[in-house]
Specification:
Helix content is about 35%, strand content about 25%. It has about 675 residues and is of the alpha+beta class.
Length: about 675
């Protein structure tokens, strides 16, 4: 039977790594490809594709010829890969450094960089045993990328392809198509910025991702070279923050307490007058803001309960979001079908994915002999069946001779996995650009996080990673994460102490869903963040269930003298995901445009169906469906409710009511 492409690539790699003199095409064709056909052209094409695949993975396939012979002579040309080609250098970390590494890798919970960060850590673990690590009690900082545009821009930036997108210019208020060479992507002032060369304007510009009004298109047939030494962090440090301005907003009486309190803190409550006449149901507030698009997203999410009055650019931004959401919600429903197998519509793994995993698997087994097969599968994030498929390919792979001593020797019949013949695959391959960027940016982002940036562990990790990453590590300067230091530091410390000491807290909380202040006793379980917005998860005795609370909405938080209850202890340790489903959740079918498809990852879609236009349909579980009209309005034409039908109808009516406040 013909071998799989993965097995063929692995055998070719092992053969080329284990020859000093080099192997000719005829030897490889006979001993690696087992090709006995007379079709020389087909074999030549296959061999060239395989060489290119290995080179894309970073292996340097050398071409050797004897003196006096031409390089294009297939009968005399030989091939080999140096023993050190693309091998990750030896690097060791202490327990405190492993703490920094794991926190840095967990920052990218979703998106392509999340996968890259986990892969990078597995490579580091594959070359040695993981030291005993104790992560900070219940702390999970996270970076929240700016939707699908973030993933598209990172991929284009690392591949050095220009991009095009439609952009709402802040200076003119007009939508314009931009063609940009993306040099760097970073977060400042709570916003993500792209910086690069604008080809139409022939100058370096920065673009706020919140002002993108279309999906990003990559010009993959074009390329560019960024300037040497470009550092997005240094560039954004020179970026001035937008000036503070005042918005006038009419708010329905008795509603939106959180918005009212923000206005009161600035002395912004005002009587209805000057073009914002009270119709008997609204109060007028004056709110501080910097970016009209950010405030418009919030105002739009309140629907008919809040109406922007001025400035005009804010009014138009809210109107644009509500109109787009209303039109998308009223559009014909697409034809779609969820995949019949698997919980998620994720990208199907390729031969390169499997080979990359197996090149991590062999050194991991060498340094962790006797692990249970379930533990090995869990470490690589795959099923036992997938792992056994990998192992079956590995034990059939080896040197061209094919004798027992020439093959990888792995046993797992007793439920534990052992390897006794590794064919010098004891070190994983070097970091990819994405892996180096994910880890190095993550480490830099941790500066300022209490209990992590103290001491020299963070600096030591940054130096070791940079040395191990080599040239690709320098590309990490094109990516800069947000600050994750909590603004409400006193509340953060109180919650963290309660988690460590297993104590109960008395909480006075401003609840947006209830639109009121509530007092409740809670047992804190963990702290987590999305950028600099921090939350804590706790067992709430008022509702007798697990709830999440934003630290900046806490009015008062003090120990009540009682210990944490058994209910909190039963919640388990720190989960990998930020949000965990509950039995009472409602499954909602949501349609997302190509621009909004990143929301499927943000809200942990249980299954997705791809659409021809690049969008998708996703099944997402929500604990409270009452706020979903706000969700649809907030995302302004990139998301809508398909099912339950009643919820979709209610959302359309709610949007029509909100839009009528502006259209009239």
């Amino acid at each position: 039977m013909p071998v799989s492409r993965t097995e063929r690539l692995l055998n070719l790699l092992i053969a080329l790594l284990n020859t000093r003199y080099g192997l000719g095409r005829s030897e490889l064709r006979d001993k690696v490809y087992h090709d006995t056909s007379d079709n020389d052209v087909a074999f030549a094409r296959m061999f060239e594709r395989d060489k290119n695949d290995l080179r894309r993975m970073g292996f340097e396939v050398e071409t050797l010829t004897d003196a006096g012979w031409a390089e294009d002579d297939s009968t005399t040309t030989r091939y080999r890969i140096g023993k050190e080609s693309n091998r990750l250098p030896e690097v060791q970390f202490g327990p405190e450094e492993w703490t920094v590494l794991l926190l840095a890798s967990q920052l990218w919970e979703r998106a392509a960089l999340g996968t890259a960060a986990r892969s990078a850590v597995r490579k580091l673990q594959s070359s040695g045993s993981l030291a005993a690590v104790e992560l900070p009690a219940g702390v999970q900082p996270r970076i929240k990328p700016a939707g699908q545009a973030f993933d598209d821009l990172v991929a284009a930036m690392h591949a050095r392809h220009p991009v095009t997108f439609t952009y709402l210019a802040g200076s003119t208020g007009r939508e314009e198509v931009r063609t940009v060479e993306p040099w760097g992507l970073g977060s400042r002032f709570g916003q993500w910025y792209l910086m690069g060369f604008d080809r139409a304007r022939k100058s370096v510009r920065h673009f706020r991702l919140s002002r993108f009004t279309s999906a990003v298109t990559t010009l993959d047939r074009d390329s560019y070279s960024p300037p040497a030494g470009f550092n997005i962090r240094e560039e954004l440090d020179r970026l001035p923050e937008l000036p503070l301005r005042t918005a006038v907003v009419r708010v329905r009486k008795g509603r939106l307490l959180a918005l009212r309190r923000r206005a009161e803190q600035r002395g912004g409550t005002a009587p209805a007058a000057d073009g914002a006449a009270d119709d008997g149901g609204y109060d007028t507030l004056r709110l501080p803001f910097r970016d009209p698009e950010v405030l418009a997203e919030e105002i739009a999410s309140y629907g008919p309960d809040a109406v922007a009055v001025e400035p005009e650019e804010l009014v138009e931004a809210v109107r644009r979001r509500l109109r787009a959401a209303s039109e998308f919600s009223a559009a014909p429903k697409p034809r779609y079908e969820f995949p019949g197998t698997g919980p998620r519509g994720t990208r199907k793994g390729t031969s390169e994915d499997q080979l990359q995993r197996m090149l991590q698997l062999v050194p991991f087994l060498v340094h962790n002999q006797g692990l249970r097969i379930e533990e090995v599968a869990a470490h690589f994030g795959i099923s036992r069946r997938q792992l056994e498929n990998d192992l079956h390919i590995l034990i059939c792979s080896g040197l061209p001779g094919g004798y027992p001593d020439d093959l990888l020797d792995i046993q797992w019949e007793d439920g534990r996995v052992y390897i006794s013949q590794d064919l010098d695959l004891t070190r994983p391959v070097r970091f990819t650009t994405e892996e180096a960027s994910a880890l190095l940016t993550g480490v830099e982002t941790l500066r300022g996080l209490p209990g992590v940036a103290d001491g020299g562990a963070l600096e030591a990790v940054a130096l070791k990673l940079s040395a191990a990453a080599g040239d690709v590590g320098r590309r990490a300067a094109a990516l800069s994460g947000p600050t994750v230091a909590p603004a409400a530091m006193a509340v953060h410390d109180t919650v963290r102490d309660a988690i460590t000491g297993r104590r109960q807290l008395r909480l006075t909380y401003l609840s947006p869903q209830r639109d009121s202040l509530t007092v409740r006793d809670v047992d804190p379980i963990r702290l987590y963040s999305q950028d600099d917005v921090w939350y804590f998860e706790a067992y709430c005795h008022l509702v007798q269930g697990i709830r999440n609370f934003r630290l900046d909405r806490v009015e008062e938080l003090v120990p009540n003298g009682r210990g944490a209850s058994a209910a909190a202890a039963g919640a388990g340790g720190v989960p990998e995901r930020l949000f965990t489903p509950n039995d009472g959740d409602t499954t909602v079918t949501v349609q997302l445009t190509r621009q909004g498809r990143g929301l499927a990852e943000d809200y942990y879609a249980e299954r997705v169906a791809e659409l021809p236009d690049g969008g998708m349909v996703a099944d997402i579980r929500f604990g409270n469906t009452a706020w979903l009209p706000m969700f649809v309005a907030q995302h302004g034409g990139t998301a809508r409710i398909l099912a339950p039908t009643g919820l979709g109808d209610a959302t359309r009516h709610w949007l029509a009511d909100a839009l009528a406040k502006y259209e009239g």
